[in-house]
């Protein structure tokens, strides 16, 4: 038993470190540090995506047959850890982490050839059309319907909580193609060009004042049948595959630990209850990092994922929320600034009182509440853990 | 990076697990301290020699072996003096004449050494008292850490040693020990060995806690499956499922910090053990409290391993200042 990196892994870490030191401009670092939502804003994200793609490391988590660099699970972890410590932007995951793996796993050759390269160059920017106003945790009850008409589906419905749909030009969506079978069996997975007639995006402003979320209305949108992924009725299995990637595809702890360390620097020395909370969060995050590593190391040595991997999204949500709450408390009244201008790193922002970290703290606190809701609520996660890990 | 046990480590784990499984089940776990005969039998199997450094005549097993053995002890809720007698005192005597006098007997399970913090040297004699000395009634000798921080060995036969029994919450026996001008032999612990001893004793305790957590969760999951109310197993209620799932997250997070501490490089070990103590004690007590709650009335009785497990976890989680002291050390 040991936790030491091999000489090859250490050399790889140095290579990643050197690349990050050379490639992450002050602008990108500042943009990442002052991001108030889950993902970097488009100006920051596009620039960083292009740098990674040029290096060949953008789709580091894809297998080599799909165009990835062929890294092992531990190499991927090293890369994520180094990116987090260097303060790299968090790229939107809808394309890279969600629909990308769906396409190389379930897509036809024509779909792979068309969509994967455009995803990588950011010619296509993806949004996720899963949730509906009446279908959140009970996703299988979704009602957006797709009626076959020759070589097309005619799609009508209403999607909600669509992150960054206002920046996207492609939507992957779950639609009901058969209303007469068990709900899970009547669902299909479609790729929708958002420029098609009948697609309307309406903003939803978050409590923080950020515009991350949207509603997407689909009104008799004609989608070619060739843009269905998998078989008709296979959408639910594909969605489960995708959600497993969303919850467990990469490590949460490195980013939390790095953010906590950066916050500790700008918060200064803490005493009393704040100091105790900071230590507890640090411990939880260190434990989570090891919980994630244990599973990665086992997979690296050929084992199947352990049910413990189901705990990480739940734990990461709570630790993340704890960190943002600590920041608000530690910054005092300065942590309650909530200017309406966006982004926080932009020129239009008023001069921060205290520090830029304090200025962004309240927005980050508010947005972090979504962690325990998106990608399966914490209550859904607990039910999954009880079933898969404990057999209840 | 590799988390698989070596063949030798797996053999040790299986040996300890089999030995304990023959003696402890849900009705006998944590009923009382391990019998001297069983303790001696473990000594004869070579377990204590494995965990003793070579300078003290042992086989020099490291942190991973301490973790593996202690976790099994915890899983059986066995009440033993492993951490203090073997890991702490066994290292305190390494390099001194005391190792020749006591080393073999300690490793064979024939004699116990107990750790007694307290007392001061006055005119070359030890005077004062140690308030609570775990396993102090049965100890053949004491490793004393004086108020000035010196390590000394005191023979339990010395006429100036006075012991008063103190029963602790887990049913183990401690002693209030007074030293009335007793002879104390200075221990010359090799450099770094005492810090190593404290780290390994701390590691052993958190490993026992993780083992105990795993058992208490297993027992609870079994119980909620068979316990029926309102015409169905209470395991079918979502509130019960979620509470069990929470217990599982505490167990896995605890095991992670335990592994990190056991596998830490030497220079990072003290910090990693402190981090494990800072988290695991509280997590284990929360889990034990939940186990009691989910067992209902039976959980608060002395009949089941659950109630007795709570008592054992309470003791282990509060040793050496518990999580409060460990978190304060990390915050400093």
From TrEMBL, chain A:
Instruction: Give residue ranges for domain Acyl-CoA dehydrogenase/oxidase N-terminal.
Output: 6-121
Q: Which cellular component terms (GO) are annotated to the entry?
A: plasma membrane
Name of this protein: Acyl-CoA dehydrogenase
Q: What is the lineage of its organism?
A: Bacteria, Pseudomonadati, Pseudomonadota, Alphaproteobacteria, Sphingomonadales
Q: Where is the Acyl-CoA dehydrogenase/oxidase C-terminal domain?
A: 274-389
- An example molecular function term from Gene Ontology annotations: oxidoreductase activity, acting on the CH-CH group of donors
Essential cofactor(s): FAD
| Keyword terms of this UniProt record | FAD, Flavoprotein, Oxidoreductase
Question: What highest taxon heads this organism's lineage?
Answer: Bacteria
Acyl-CoA oxidase/dehydrogenase middle domain location? 127-220
Family (UniProt):
Belongs to the acyl-CoA dehydrogenase family.
TrEMBL record, chain B:
**Pfam families, per the entry:** Acyl-CoA_dh_1, Acyl-CoA_dh_N
Q: Which InterPro entries match?
A: Acyl-CoA_Oxase/DH_mid-dom_sf, AcylCo_DH-like_C, AcylCo_DH/oxidase_C, AcylCoA_DH/ox_N, AcylCoA_DH/ox_N_sf, AcylCoA_DH/oxidase_NM_dom_sf
Instruction: Fetch the Gene3D superfamilies from UniProt.
Output: Acyl-CoA dehydrogenase/oxidase, N-terminal domain, Butyryl-CoA Dehydrogenase, subunit A, domain 2, Butyryl-CoA Dehydrogenase, subunit A, domain 3
Q: Which GO terms describe its molecular function?
A: acyl-CoA dehydrogenase activity; flavin adenine dinucleotide binding
Please provide the record's keywords in A-Z order: FAD, Flavoprotein, Oxidoreductase
Cofactor(s) essential for the protein: FAD
Domain Acyl-CoA dehydrogenase/oxidase C-terminal, residue spans: 203-321
Acyl-CoA dehydrogenase/oxidase N-terminal domain spans which residues? Answer: 6-82
The answer to whether keyword Transcription applies is no
What family is this? Answer: Belongs to the acyl-CoA dehydrogenase family.
Recorded protein name is Acyl-CoA dehydrogenase
């Amino acid at each position: 038993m040991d936790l030491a990196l091999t000489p090859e892994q250490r050399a790889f870490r140095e290579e990643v470190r050197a690349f990050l030191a050379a490639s992450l401009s002050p602008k990108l670092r500042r943009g990442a540090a002052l991001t108030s939502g889950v993902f970097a804003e488009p100006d920051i994200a596009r620039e960083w995506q292009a740098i990674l793609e040029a290096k060949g490391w953008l789709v580091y988590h894809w297998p080599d047959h799909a165009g990835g660099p062929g890294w092992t699970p531990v190499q991927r972890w090293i890369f994520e850890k180094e990116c987090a410590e260097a303060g790299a932007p968090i790229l939107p995951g809808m394309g890279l982490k969600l629909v990308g793996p769906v396409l190389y796993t379930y897509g036809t050759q024509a779909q792979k050839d068309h969509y994967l390269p455009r995803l990588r160059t950011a010619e296509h920017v993806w949004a996720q059309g899963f949730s509906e106003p009446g279908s959140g945790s009970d996703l299988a009850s979704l009602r957006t319907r797709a009626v076959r008409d020759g070589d097309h589906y005619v799609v009508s419905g209403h999607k909600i909580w669509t992150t960054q749909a206002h920046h996207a030009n492609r939507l992957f969506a779950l639609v009901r193609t058969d209303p007469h079978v068990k709900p899970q069996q009547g669902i299909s997975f479609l790729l929708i060009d958002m420029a098609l007639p009948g697609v309307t995006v309406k903003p939803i402003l978050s409590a923080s004042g950020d515009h991350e979320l949207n509603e997407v209305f689909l009104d008799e949108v004609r989608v070619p049948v060739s843009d269905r992924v998998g078989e008709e009725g296979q959408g639910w299995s594909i969605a489960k595959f995708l959600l497993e990637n969303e919850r467990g595809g990469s490590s949460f702890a490195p980013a939390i630990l790095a953010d906590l360390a950066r916050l500790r620097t700008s918060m200064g020395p803490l005493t009393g209850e704040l100091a105790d909370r900071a230590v507890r969060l640090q411990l939880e995050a260190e434990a989570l990092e090891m919980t994630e590593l244990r599973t990665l190391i086992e997979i690296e040595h050929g084992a199947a994922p352990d049910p413990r991997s189901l705990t990480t999204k739940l734990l990461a949500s709570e630790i993340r929320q704890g960190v943002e709450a600590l920041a608000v408390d530690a910054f005092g009244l300065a942590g309650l600034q909530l200017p309406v201008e966006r982004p926080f790193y932009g020129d239009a922002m008023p001069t921060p009182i205290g520090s830029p970290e304090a200025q962004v703290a309240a927005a980050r606190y508010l947005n972090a509440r979504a962690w325990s809701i998106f990608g399966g609520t914490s209550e859904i996660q607990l039910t999954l853990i009880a079933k898969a890990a404990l057999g209840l | 990076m590799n988390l698989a046990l070596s063949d030798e480590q797996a053999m040790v784990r299986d040996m300890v697990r089999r030995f304990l499984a023959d003696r402890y089940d849900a009705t006998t776990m944590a009923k009382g301290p391990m019998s001297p005969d069983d303790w001696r039998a473990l000594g004869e199997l070579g377990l204590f020699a494995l965990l003793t450094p070579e300078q003290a005549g042992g086989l020099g097993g490291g942190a991973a072996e301490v973790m593996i053995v202690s976790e099994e002890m915890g899983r059986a809720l066995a009440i033993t003096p492993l951490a203090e007698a073997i890991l702490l005192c066994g290292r305190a005597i390494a390099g001194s004449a005391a190792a020749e006098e006591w080393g073999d007997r300690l490793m064979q399970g024939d004699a116990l050494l107990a750790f007694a913090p307290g007392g001061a040297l006055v005119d070359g004699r030890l005077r004062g008292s140690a308030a609570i000395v775990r396993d102090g009634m049965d100890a053949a000798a004491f490793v004393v850490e004086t108020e000035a921080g010196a390590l000394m060995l005191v023979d339990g036969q010395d006429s100036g040693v006075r012991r008063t029994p103190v029963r602790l919450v887990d049913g183990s026996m401690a002693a209030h020990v007074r030293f009335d001008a007793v002879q104390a032999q200075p221990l010359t612990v090799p450099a770094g060995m005492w810090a190593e001893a404290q780290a390994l004793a701390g590691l052993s305790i958190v490993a026992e806690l993780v083992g105990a957590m795993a058992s208490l969760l297993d027992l609870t999951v079994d119980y909620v499956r068979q316990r029926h109310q309102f015409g169905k197993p209470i395991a079918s209620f979502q509130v019960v499922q979620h509470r069990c799932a929470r217990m599982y997250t505490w167990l896995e997070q605890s095991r992670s910090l335990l592994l990190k501490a056991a596998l830490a490089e030497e220079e990072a070990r003290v910090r990693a053990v402190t981090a494990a103590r800072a988290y695991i004690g509280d997590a284990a007590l929360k889990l034990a409290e939940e186990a009691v709650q989910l067992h209902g009335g039976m959980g608060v009785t002395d009949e089941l391993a659950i109630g007795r497990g709570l008592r054992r976890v309470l003791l282990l989680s509060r040793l050496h200042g518990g999580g409060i002291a460990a978190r304060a050390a990390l915050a400093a």
